[in-house]
Design brief:
Blueprint lengths: L2 H19 L22 E2 L2 H4 L2 H4 L22 E3 L5 E3 L1 E9 L11 E9 L8 E8 L9 E5 L12 H4 L1 E11 L5 E9 L1 E2 L4 E2 L2 E14 L2 E14 L9 H5 L11 E8 L2 E9 L22 H12 L4 H6 L2 E8 L5 E10 L8 E8 L2 E9 L13 E8 L7 E2 L5 E5 L9 E8 L5 E8 L11 E2 L3 E6 L2 E4 L14
């Protein structure tokens, strides 16, 4: 019996049991539809009620991504590479993340700040690999970023006897931490190729390596290879959907995610928070999920009206597949998997994709951020060009998480994706002092312009006070700037 059929049968048994029991935390609500139920699965949710507040709320200047002057934007001068024939080319550079201390602040490595970023040939969308850029502490200009080149050699994936790594096609985004012994530990997404005929469905796997970095002279950092390159987690089916659950029956309508590992520590314990989809025991996808009141929140009339709008509207199929989540696993001291934990938050019926998990502690509270696209959402009033950073706050790392600003909205941007100053992949970088965080991102979609490439966008400041956030007016910084202290 396939996983999807098992899930459907389990759901049917649950419905019957709840009806016979006549009550309980997950029993179905009394009403005309006997399939209605309410189940939180023991973690927080991005609800339809909250997200429906956003279309009106996003009009406020408080949430607007700071506009930039296109005439001042530069490509990263050091973003150079070679094509397949060895010719020098200018690279696109998009998702990036700094080398961070265990508390999330930007680390200093031998007098430098380090940023890892996805980069590649603008003419080849599949050319997606991790490069290391660095800048002297105190420098902020786009011209001061130097490029140490690709982190991994093509042959690195074959060094260990790791069958997942052996089939890696691309390197996708992640995080990096400065370890207690001064080493550079990188976490990233190993993405396999897409070849269904031969059993490859673009599988994503959380992966790690130690990156050996040397300093040949006062102005230069060098990548001296990697060690301990290994897979960590590729889903378990119960807490988090696997690629086989998503595509194993030959239906490729789903949007499977298991990527963007973000490293965080709490009381000396090591964790990865990551983009994912819920599994069979944490609120799986399917038409049955549209009857779970937890995913809606609000009054019973609101639930009935919104549910019927989905069941009999054009977004039904998309909502039924929407089970995005921000997952968490605990690691052993050697960065192998220790424990698979329940998600921190999920977006069932809202969207299948909440990206770039980002989590840190600030002033005694834990702040959880994620990026999402309106084109992937199922909410009326949200358009295809809308881009968001959403945020949530809790008193402990594992929650429960409550939406910032009453809805979860932190940042909004709605430029045409073909606009050269379009931005995405917004990432909050906590500072050593104060209530402001630096927001980094990239700008310009790949391959659209001959003379402008995907590059670091100008950074800007976001103020955080308790459960409220606001963009700091006139706080535009240099392209790629990480710190203000």
């Amino acid at each position: 019996m396939t996983i999807k059929k098992i899930v459907r049968r389990a759901a049917a048994v649950t419905f019957t049991t709840a009806l016979l029991a006549g009550g309980g935390a997950s029993a179905f609500a009394q009403g005309n539809n006997s399939k209605d139920y309410k189940e939180s699965y023991g973690f927080s949710h991005i609800t339809r009620s909250d997200i429906l507040k956003i279309p009106e709320q996003q009009k406020s200047e408080q949430f607007q991504v700071t506009p930039f002057n296109a005439s001042t934007i530069k490509n990263i001068p050091s973003a150079k590479g070679v094509d397949q024939w060895g010719n020098a080319i200018d690279l696109d550079v998009w998702d990036s993340w700094p080398l961070q201390n265990a508390d999330g602040t930007v680390a200093e490595y031998n007098g430098h700040h380090i940023v890892f970023a996805l980069a590649g040939d603008p003419k080849k969308g599949w050319d997606t690999f991790i490069y290391m850029f660095y800048q002297k502490v105190g420098d902020t200009s786009i011209d001061s970023w130097k490029n140490a080149g690709r982190v991994f050699k093509d042959s690195d994936k074959y060094l260990s006897n790791d069958p997942i790594l052996n089939n890696q096609a691309e390197e996708w985004s992640g995080s990096a931490t400065l370890t207690k012994d001064g080493g550079v530990r990188l976490f990233y997404t190993n993405r396999q190729g897409w070849d269904p005929a031969n059993g490859f469905f673009g599988k994503q796997t959380l992966t790690t390596a130690q990156v050996n970095v040397s300093k040949p002279d006062a102005d230069t950092l060098k990548v001296d290879g990697v060690e301990d390159l290994k897979s960590i987690f590729d889903g378990d089916g119960k807490m988090y959907q696997t690629v086989d659950q998503a595509f194993g029956e030959g239906d490729y309508a789903d949007n499977h995610t298991l990527r963007d590992p973000h490293y965080v520590e709490d009381n000396g314990r090591k964790y990865l928070v990551f983009e994912s989809n819920t599994g069979s025991e944490t609120g799986y996808q399917g038409e049955e999920s549209l009857s779970n009141r937890t995913y809606y929140e609000g009054s019973k009339p609101f639930f009935e009206a919104e549910k019927n709008k989905l069941l009999f509207g054009p977004k039904k199929s998309l909502a039924a597949l929407a089970n995005g989540s921000l997952g968490i696993i605990e690691l052993n001291d050697d960065y192998t998997l220790k424990t698979v934990m329940k998600p921190l938050i999920a977006s069932n019926t809202v969207t299948d994709e909440i990206e770039r998990a980002n989590l840190f502690e600030m002033n005694g509270k834990w702040y959880l951020f994620t990026d999402s696209r309106g084109s992937k959402m199922t909410i009326d009033g949200i358009g295809a060009n809308d881009v968001y950073m959403l945020g949530y706050v809790a008193s402990s790392l594992t929650g429960p998480y409550k939406p910032l600003n009453g809805s979860g909205l932190v940042l909004h941007m709605a430029l045409d994706p073909n606009d050269p100053i379009w931005t995405y992949s917004h990432f909050a970088v906590p500072q050593a002092k104060g209530n402001n965080v630096v927001i980094t991102s990239y700008m310009t979609n790949r391959g659209l312009y001959a003379d402008q490439h995907s590059t670091f966008a100008p950074s800007f400041l976001l103020n955080i006070k308790g459960s409220k956030t606001s963009v700091v007016k006139d706080s535009v910084l240099e392209q790629g700037q990480l710190t203000v202290n």
